Amino acid sequence: MFESLSDRLGKIFDGLRGRGALSAADVDVALREIRRALIEADVSLEVVRAFVEQVRDRAVGVEVTRSVTPGQQVVKIVHDELVGVLGESAVAIDLNATAPVTLLMVGLQGSGKTTTTAKIAKRLKDRQKKKVLLASLDTRRPAAMEQLRVLGEQVGVDTLPIVTSETPVQIARRAEREGRLGGYDVLILDTAGRTHVDEELMVETTEIKAATKPHEILLVVDALTGQDAINVARSFDTRLDITGIVMTRVDGDGRGGAALSMRAATGKPIKLIGVGEKMDALEDFHPSRIADRILGMGDIVSLVEKAAEHVSAEDAQKMAKKLKKGSFDLDDLRNQLLQMKKMGGMGGLMAMMPGAGQMKKAMAGANIDEKVFDRQIAIINSMTKKERAEPDLLNASRRKRIAAGAGVEVSEINKLAKQHRQMADMMKKVGKGGMGALGGMFGGKMGNMLGGMPDISKMDPAQLEQMARQAGIDPSQLKGLPSAPTPQLSQKLPTDVGALLKSSGSGLPGLGGAPRFPGLPGLGKKK
To answer: Last residue of a domain, which of 30, 52, 86?
Structure first.
């Protein structure tokens, strides 16, 4: 969602980084471009003015003039101010109240309220082991109650039985009574919405609030709404005193200004963001990580969290044992591909890497087809158990049979076999030399990733080129990538990652236990 803003800011900062010293005039030119970029991204004018003034005050002061790298220091100042606008720190849904804790979902029709209600219920059930009850108070939209009932079944959460003759307030009171008697931990009330804010909607929602006294009132806002999302947020906050915001469709092609303006306009934190249609596509909103993404620094901490979520300690240990033996069969390759798909595919992973914008452009230019992962998984599934364990058995006749079973050409089988052979050879080297060999293969920088990110801006070009070649990357693709993350990001990263690894109990999935994406296998051209 922040791609266009990220690209614009990236070009501005590239010009600043190349200068040995910055004058007040240089800062003014950069801030003028930043102002334009923010306005084009749908950030409200009052937020843009305050943001630019705060950056100016810091950027023309002692903080920059005494800096060794003024350009980098300005990037850091902008990063810090972005974090301030977005909310300093992440704020989770508060469940510290007498059970059942009532959450009231409000917002306009079409913002994704009902789907988000089910997503939050699944999240509380799976992550915090809460017993959740859902209740639809939408008596106006056809099949709204039935929709929530179906979603409840999908995520394995109870829903309040439907009684069509009741008013929203009566349904809410019945839901509260059912929540107490049924021993539920959390009660989530999904209210009705309209296509626009009107008095009737506000009166109805105010009555529901008075009857249920919810612990949390969450406003669901569509990130694609743009500037109007701020007016919606202010209207609901004035009448209901919302406690938090949930933004949906953050994975869409909106310009991202609503997220930057929302907290400044209401003073209420953005607690969750919807990043897809699936029921598990809901993430905590971390202001510093969003700022990192906007400024092209990537989001390594979220990447590690996602890996820890999808790779169990048991799987990591099994892979580590096989790695020590230098063993890597086609079942292992299939598991790698499935894990990559669960983590959002190649695009989802690239979005969290530093220099994501440049890498996405390179991928688009290379015409990479992510559906190749599905085809390769289908190919491996078409093999017998013995063939997957012993790839050397794949002679010409077997390859023809597998190709027919997977619905692909024999050439696809040959490509997969070659990729597997290359990966298996790499695993043998790692098995012989342990993690030292793995570090050597990546220019000795893998250990640095675990203990602190290397400062790319201070590295010799020849070192960078050598690292790229050893990692199987074309050195020409490194041109134009942003320099190292700001000191703030670099300093916090080892601590955050270390804590995540310790809590996961499995080492860094895909790096410590076993390399999860060595050489990024399976990337092909679109047909």
So the answer is: 86
pLDDT of the residue at 498? 44
Q: Is the pTM of this model over 0.70?
A: no
Query: By the 8 A CB rule, do 363 and 317 touch?
Result: no
Structural domains in the chain (count): 3
Residues 6+ apart with CB under 8 A from 200: 194
pLDDT band at 368 (very low <50, low <70, confident <90, very high): low
Alpha helical stretches, state H, 23-69: 24-40, 45-59, 62-65
Name the band, by pLDDT with cuts 50, 70 and 90, for residue 446: very low
- E strands present in 62-154: 101-107, 132-136
- Report which listed range, 205-209, 301-305, 426-430, is most confident: 205-209
| β partners of residue 103 | 188, 216
Residues in the chain: 527
**By residue range, what is the domain housing residue 80?**
3-86
If asked whether residues 146 and 230 sit together in one domain, one would say yes
pLDDT the model gives residue 522:
41
CA dist 347 and 263 (Å) reads: 28
Closest CA to 520 of 363, 398, 322: 363
User: Which structure tokens are listed for 476?
Assistant: 């020409």
Provide the phi-psi class of 220: left if phi over 0, else alpha when psi is between -120 and 50, else beta: beta
List, in order, residues 6 or more apart from 311 with CB less than 8 Å away: 339, 506, 509, 510, 513, 516
Task: Flag whether 409 is in a domain.
Answer: no
- Cα–Cα distance for residue pair 22/77, rounded to 1 Å: 14
Task: Express each pLDDT in 2-48 by its tens digit.
Answer: 666 777 777 777 777 666 666 778 788 888 888 888 888 878 888 88
Structure tokens at 244: 């938090």
Among candidate residues 250, 279, 294, the one where a domain is terminated:
294
Q: Which residues contact 368 (CB under 8 A, 6 or more apart)?
A: 346, 523, 524, 525, 526
CB 155 within 8 Å of CB 147 = no
The pLDDT value recorded for residue 67 is 57
Provide the mean pLDDT of the chain.
76
- Give the chain's largest Cα–Cα span: 75
**CA–CA dist 270, 247 (Å, integer):** 7
**Which residues fall within 8 angstroms of residue 212, CB to CB, at 6 or more apart?**
102, 104, 172, 173, 176, 189
